[in-house]
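Look over what follows to help learners.
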Amino acid sequence: MLILLLIVFPMLAGPGLFFLGRRYGAIWKWGPAVCAGLEFVMSALLLVLPQTASAPGILPGGLAFETSGFRVGYGLLASILWLGSTLFSMEYFRHAPDHLGSYWAFQFLTLGAVQGLFLSADFMTAFCFFEMLSFCSFPWVMHERDNSAIRAGCTYLAVSVIGGLILFFGLLLLYQEAGTLHYAAMPGTLEAADPGRLLGAEICILLGFGAKAGMFPLHVWLPKAHPVAPAPASALLSGMLTKAGIYGILMTGLYVVRDGQGFGRLMLALGLVTMVLGALMALFSVHLKHTLACSSMSQIGFILTGISAYLLCRSAGEEEGAALALNGAVLHMVNHSLLKLDLFLSAGAVAMNLHALELNDIRGWGRNKPLLKTVFGIAVLGISGVPGFNGYLSKTMLHEGLLEAIHASGVWAGTEWVFLFSGGLTFAYMLKLFLCVFVEKNHDPVRQAEFDRPGKYASACSAAVLAYATCLLLPLGIPKFALFLSGSMTGEPLGHFAAFSLENLKGALISLGIGLLVTLCFVRPVLRQGGRDRSLWPKWLDLEESVYRPLLLHVLPAVLGAPARLFGENLVLTPICRGLVLAGSVFGRGLDRSTDGLILGLRRTLLREEPVRDSLKAGKEASASRRMAMRLAYSSVMDNFSFAMTIACFGIVLVFLLLFLLS
């Protein structure tokens, strides 16, 4: 019963806070903190009260949940992150109170979906909550309701829905081969599976979950969503929602993959590209939150590399290397979640005071702020893998596991240097941020004098949350504690691991040396000019703008229209095609108008809002995109559902087509 309450409670609390807060505004001052605190208590109780649960009447196979080491551990971690983000949000939104009700509603709806995903006992349950996660979290990205937020939110939702469709197709293939989607039953049912179909299912599942994780080439949403979302939401997007994708990939590796060589090499290649590309994008960035977002992409690449090393070692019979890689991947997941809570909340403190996050605008702001400097500095040392801090242990375990995979499976030896080089870039871009905000002086002396003027920059509650986030990091730098935690979560505890041996220290020092070299030889002389940072990242490397949008909007219509241009009009096919286009247009327009009408009716009746501007009248002289922006600009919590429902219906149609092809 407790496990179901852990999922259902936040899903009821979110809408409850929205409706009660609209009538009694004081509820928003204390209600979210109470709800997050209760969720944390229930998550902690699951550590001592392990249980299973099911909801048989919801789907044909029912929903199934269970608490094992990894599941209950990450469920508790989700509650910790939500509690910290919620407490910090209490002050953050005093400076930007617009759309506060919708934020709290989707904050707790997303928490319920996250708990359902991490506590799931089969792939179908995980898929249901994974899709729910997409529709509950994309309003965070659109929270500001400006053009950049709307565009980033549309990109996030489109990638999530497309990833969900690919995932669903993979699960259909997997079910055909296994006859079940329950994790525990999977290994015994796949012995006689067709290798080709099983590999196809594995690749679809990898791409589907990888879309949410921010894996290349489906990473395009991540660097754009974080800068426009509120800082507390960015901490959860980066620290927890990307791990929802990693969770699915990890479950696939543990329970589905039989031949780890082919699938492991594919994942290794994607992990390495994700790791290096994210680090390079972060290095070239001149925006604090954009740098942290690209950093998240890079760290996801580290985790994917660890999971692939686990698969390669396991298939080669190298059990010690497999345990090292698996424990390192899980420990780095935990480290990254806590590090991004620390870093994004620190960025939120900057945004609350300056309402700016461009590096040239905030340079020198933190010079006389010792608490924030300490909090950010510890996170920088941790994520860079400096010995003695939490990131060192997880990266060292990943490095050792990767070396074992190289020796056992014959993987390209240069893979190790790609790993070390990416670690060096991590140190370079994090050092760039720390020096900019907390060491260097602003190029404008008058502005620097304003920055140095004594004053309160955070409330006692926000300062306590920052200290709390930092204190969570410090124990993970202690080898015995970190190894105990990772072993408890994976169920494969390590034997003796010499964390501070000369060989292990050498790898960390090489990465740090590369970072210093990149800083001295490239960041300072090339990426800075006249004391100001500049971005030299080529625009054509933006896959969304240079590949995906042109492909979908120009190339694909041209290819589909080529037969008509080649053969001319056909007396049978032409009327049919035109009829389908007309029907699709009428259906799409009707769906859009009907959802808008439903939302408008809700706002004028149940929500009791004053009538808003009629976007259809105002839009006669505006473009279609302008009309969409105006509708969202004058919206409340429900307005995002028009776009969400349109995308969802499009997805449902494609799912039925896939089912038809498989039948």
In short: Residues 609-646, 659-663 have pLDDT under 50 and may be disordered. Residues 331 and 493 are 12 Å apart (CA to CA). The beta strands are 52-55, 63-66, 528-529, 532-533.
